[in-house]
Amino acid sequence: MIAVTRLNGTPLQVNANLIEMVESTPDTLLVLTTGRKIMVSESVEDVTHRILQYHRLVHAPSRRQRPSKGV
Q1: Can you tell me the distance from the alpha carbon of 40 to that of 34, in angstroms, rounded to the nearest whole number?
Q2: pTM of the entire structure?
Q3: Of 25, 46, 52, 68, which cross-links 42 as Cys (Cβ 3.0–4.6 Å)?
Q4: Cβ count within 10 A of residue 14
Q5: Cis link prior to 61 (omega < 30° from 0)?
């Protein structure tokens, strides 16, 4: 999920996997795969950055060390 803000100032969490398109109209429009459209106050660049951060976090290799096997 990424945090965005509706034009009326209401915070909103959006599933980044459902975002199909981000468009500047001049406000930023998120078009979801469900067909729903959401206008947000963040810029296209900011939304894109948040989506990339989300995917990097989700797909990053685990930082936990695996227990070593005794020989």
Answers
A1: 17
A2: 0.81
A3: 46
A4: 20
A5: no
Computed from CA positions of residues 61, 44, 4, 15, in that sequence, does the dihedral angle turn out positive or negative?
Answer: negative
Which residue's structure tokens are 């999920």? 1
**What is the predicted pLDDT for the residue at 35?**
97
CA angle 48, 13, 41 (to 5 degrees): 55
Query: Environment class of residue 57 by beta-carbon count within 10 Å: exposed (0-12), middle (13-18) or buried (19+)?
Result: exposed
HEC string of the chain?
Answer: CEEEEECCCCEEEECHHHEEEEEECCCEEEEECCCCEEEECCCHHHHHHHHHHHHHHHHCCCCCCCCCCCC
Q: How far apart are CA 16 and CA 39, in angstroms?
A: 15
Residue 10 has which token pair? 């209401």
Note the pLDDT of residue 61.
Answer: 82
